[in-house]
Amino acid sequence: MDLADRVLAGDQRAIARAISLVENEPDAAAGLLRHMAGRIGHARVIGVTGAPGVGKSTLVDRLAAEYRRMGRTVGILAIDPTSPISGGAILGDRVRMQRHVFDEGVYVRSMATHGRLGGLSHATSDAVLILDAAGRDVVLIETAGVGQAEVDIARTADASIVVTIPDAGDGVQAMKAGIMEIGDVFVVNKLDRPGAERAAAEIEEMLSLREYGEGTWRPPVLKTRAATGEGVAAVVEAVERFAGQPAETRERRRTRARTRLTDLLRQQFVERLEHSEETRKLLDEAVERMAAGEIDPYAAVAEIMERTS
Ligand SMILES: Nc1nc2c(ncn2[C@@H]2O[C@H](COP(=O)(O)OP(=O)(O)OP(=O)(O)O)[C@@H](O)[C@H]2O)c(=O)[nH]1
Ligand SMILES: [Mg+2]
Question: What is the pLDDT of residue 308?
C-alpha cells in the first residue's frame, strides 16, 4: 500500500511521514495531496493561540481529552516558534501531552518554524489536510500568536480560541490587537491566580465596544484552570456552538481555500518566472536597476507584468 492509502486508512506512522514530506519536500507532497482529494473537509479545525506560557499546550491537551470523551479522534499540531537552538518547547509539549501516548485516537506533532518564513503556513495547512484526510475529527493547532503566519492560521481555522491569563502585563492591552480580532472564544486560563475575574471583565468590556447585528456571534469569555481541567468542557461547548453555525463554517473554509490558493499561485508564478531563461533575465535586469535606484519596485513589477503577459 502506498503512503497516500495508508494515510487515508488513518495509519499514525503514515501520517507522520506524510507531514515530514510536506515540511521538507513540497513537490513530493503535491502528488500525495492529490490522492486525498475527495476525502477532505470533514475535520473541525480549531486554532489555539496566545502569548508564550499562558497554558496553550495544557489547554490543548485537555481539549483533546474532552473530545476523546465525546468519541472523536484528534490531531494536534503544535507550531513551535522557537529557534532551532532551544528546542525546549517541543520537548515540553511532548511531555505535557504524554497522557495520550497510548491512545491511537490522539496524534501529536510539533512543527518547528525555524525561521523558514512563509514555509510555516504552507506546511501547516498541508498538515491539516493530511490529518483531515486521515479521518481525524478534530484538528487542534497551537500557535504562539507572535507572527503574521500564526495569526493567519488562526484566522482561517473553523474556530479560534484566544488564551490569556490574569496579570498578563497590562492585561488586555498586552494582547496584540491582531490577536483580539481573531478570537471566536476567549479563555482566561489560570483562574486559580488572582485577577481572573478582572481579566475576563476587561475582555468583555473590549468586546462590548463592537457592534453585534442580529444573529452575529458574540465571542464568549470563559475562565479555565487547564492544569486541572476545570472549565474546559465549557470551552468545547462554546467552540462547537460557534463552529456549528453552517454559514460561518462555510465562510471560514472559503477563506482558508482562497488564502491557500492565492499563496500557491503566487509562489508558482514567481517560480515560473525564475525558471525561464528569458524571464529570469528580465528579473535580473529589474533587480540591477532597482538596486541602482533607477527604478522603483512598482514600476519594475509593472514592466515585468507587461512583458510577460
Ligand atoms: N497555575 C496554573 N498554571 C497553569 C495552568 N495551566 C497551565 N499552567 C502552567 O503554565 C505553564 C505553561 O503552560 P503551557 O501549557 O506550556 O503554556 P504554553 O502557552 O503552551 O507555552 P508555550 O508553548 O511555551 O508558549 C506550565 O507550567 C503549566 O503547568 C493553570 O490553569 N493554572
Ligand atoms: Mg505550548
Answer: 82
